[in-house]
Each structure stands twice: as C-alpha cells, then as structure tokens.
Design a protein that fits this description.
Layout: E1 2-4, E2 12-21, E3 40-49, E4 55-66, E5 70-78, E6 85-90, E7 95-102, E8 108-118, E9 124-131, E10 134-142, E11 152-162, E12 169-180
Antiparallel strand pairs: 1-12, 2-11, 3-8, 3-12, 4-5, 4-11, 5-6, 6-7, 8-9, 9-10
Length: 181
C-alpha cells in the first residue's frame, strides 16, 4: 500500500528499492561485473488505484547507474489527468517526452508491463508498454548521461502524483517483478 496526503497541489512521493548494487542488501555487485552485462529490463506489476480522479500521474521507473560507464533512468509516467498519454524520460534533456500512446487506468486493479532496453552504446530504448492487455509500441531512444561518483546499481521505483487540489492518493502494487537479462 502506498499512500500520501500532501495537501499541496501536484505533490509527489517516490518509493525506491535497490535491486543490484550499492543500495541492494542482497546483491551489491561489488566487483562491478554484473551490471554491464544486463541490457533488457521488464517492469511488470498489478496496480490498484482507489480513486483515479485524484491520481494526476503514476510513474514506473528503473534506474541504472554505472559510474564510469553510464547513467540512465528508464522513466515511464502515465500522465492520467494531464494529457492522458504515457510519457518517457529523456535523460539527456532532463524532461518528459510524450510517448504518443494513451494511458487510461481505472479505479480498481490494472496491469502494466514495460519493456526497456539498454543499447550497446548505452542509449535508453523504450520498446513498449502494455496496459490492461493492450500493447503500445514506443520505440523511442535517448542518450544516457554520466553516472555520479559512487553510483553503481539498479533501483526499482514507483511514484504517485496528486492532482491540482493536493488530494490524498492511495495505490497498491501486487505481483511486482523486474526481470533483467
């Protein structure tokens, strides 16, 4: 269960979990050999929205940071109450880019699967997003950036944004999986 009661317009809260690397208690990749071999990422989860009228956006992200190699956030945002489309994060510009595909989740349970690829030149490639059984090809590619000193790992992120009134937002995630290859 994820909940926020911001009472501020367009407030957000980011939840993150270290999967591999310095923030991971189970797989620190101390010798820095695992992360460079991983290129394919699949973010897959069921999510429950208590009241879609107050959820401005939901964000499902995978951050990959390899000091001396590259840094990237595979950011995907369902801009539900904005333009109603999926946005993807452009690391180079530091801005959201409209993916050109619709994102309409409903009150109750929804399912999302996001296919991502780190290219051989470390560009981020957003392959596709499947929402409630409908797959939308994205095929947008952006350059990575430099990873800050000491940053090494993969983090799995979920973020909620409140609406213009700063209303309370409640969401649940279930069956959350990140598959990496």
């Amino acid at each position: 269960m994820f909940e926020m009661s911001p009472l501020l317009p367009y407030a957000d809260v980011l939840y993150t979990s270290g999967i591999i690397g310095v923030n991971s208690p189970r797989n620190p990749d101390s010798n820095h050999t695992l992360l460079p071999t991983l290129h394919t990422y699949t973010y897959d989860t069921d999510f429950y929205v208590q009241d879609s009228a107050v959820s401005q956006a939901l964000e499902f992200d995978v951050s990959v940071w390899m000091e001396g190699i590259a840094g990237m956030t595979f950011g995907t945002q369902c801009n539900h109450l904005g333009d109603g489309d999926w946005d993807v994060w452009n690391n180079q510009s530091g801005h959201w880019t409209d993916a050109g595909v619709p994102c309409k989740f409903t009150d109750g349970w929804n399912h999302v699967t996001i296919q991502l690829q780190r290219e051989s030149n470390n560009d981020t490639l957003y392959q596709s997003i499947t929402l409630n059984g409908t797959t939308y090809p994205i095929n947008k590619e952006f350059p990575s950036i430099a990873a800050p000193a000491g940053w090494w790992g993969i983090n799995l992120n979920f973020q909620m944004d409140s609406n213009y009134q700063g209303a309370q937002v409640t969401a649940y995630l279930d069956n959350l999986n990140l598959t990496v290859q």
